[in-house]
Amino acid sequence: MRAWRVQTPGPIAGGPLRAVREPAPEPGDGELLVRVLACGVCRTDLHVAEGDLPVHRQHVVPGHEVVAEVIGGDLGTHAIGDRVGIPWLRSTCGRCRYCLRGDENLCPDSTYTGWDADGGYAEFATVPADFALPVPSGYDPQTLAPLLCAGIIGYRALLRAQVPPGGTLGLYGFGGSAHLTAQVALAQGIRVHVMTRGDDARRLALELGASSAQGAYDTPPEPLDSAILFAPAGELVPTALEALDAGGTLALAGIHLTDVPSLNYQRHLFRERTVRSVTANTRRDAHEFLAFAGEHRLHVTTTPYPLDGADRALRDLSEGRFAGAAVLVP
């Protein structure tokens, strides 16, 4: 099969990925063997490739927004020909206090697709059957792929942001995850303001129904009840906090964030403003979001790349050359 591996983590311009041809993987106990139909290109893949995240598996195959067809393995409740999704969360212990209380995303023994185990920048992959997600009908593989991380993690970030009914939400950064989260929030009757770089991203935000769209460091036109920081830029944290109304909540959606500058207590935190991080997701989050996507037709903006162009897709992601999400199509 064709695949891409992270040969030596480093700046994406230096070409840390290497294209390889190798045998298809063998599924282990409890694992499905799948044929990859599409794989989204997530900023977390960029962090893995560039070494922002520590190496968990040498020469890993990135990719964790995988739409695939079951072709073999330990099927369990699945069947040959089923269409499934492979998300970021790959396994948990199921026994620790976090798993037992429903917070499996905090499991210290959790593993992740495209970081601890090979992912979807390939023609074939494996996935534990218990963590393979049912996917909603009505979407083709290319539009489904971003839902499996960008959509799911955005949904969890929205939960963590605790927007009050009819409230105002600010989104900092407007890529693959934010453009889906905005649609969920709008469907819930929330007013959305977008702060992001790039004319294309701002135009997309307004087309999707955002009340305003301005530069990343600009002040929104009204105080925010909640905000979500999608951009991996810690320097935006004070800006977002200052835009919050009293009692507001800022959720940090990324797995990686550059250093946060020092905060002024009166300007940024006083009057019960709250900062909350987001760590992966639970399967419950995934099922809830994918059910929502099945009931509400989401507009998924994608830019397709052939599998052979995975390194180019990551470079374009790094440089903000497209709105929405990039997707590899083998």
Kindly describe this structure:
The chain is an alpha/beta fold and 330 residues long. The chain has 10 helices and 17 strands. α8 links the parallel β14 and β15. α4 packs across α9.
Compact overview of the structure:
It is built from 10 helices and 17 strands.
Record keyword descriptors for this entry.
330 residues, alpha/beta, 7-stranded mixed β-sheet, 6-stranded parallel β-sheet, 10 helices, globular
Helix/strand layout:
Layout (H helix, E strand, L loop, with lengths): L1 E5 L10 E5 L9 E11 L1 H8 L15 E8 L9 E4 L2 E3 L5 H4 L10 E2 L11 E5 L4 E2 L6 H4 L5 H12 L6 E5 L5 H10 L3 E5 L3 H10 L3 E3 L9 E6 L6 H8 E9 L12 H5 L4 E4 L5 H13 L6 E5 L3 H9 L6 E5 L1
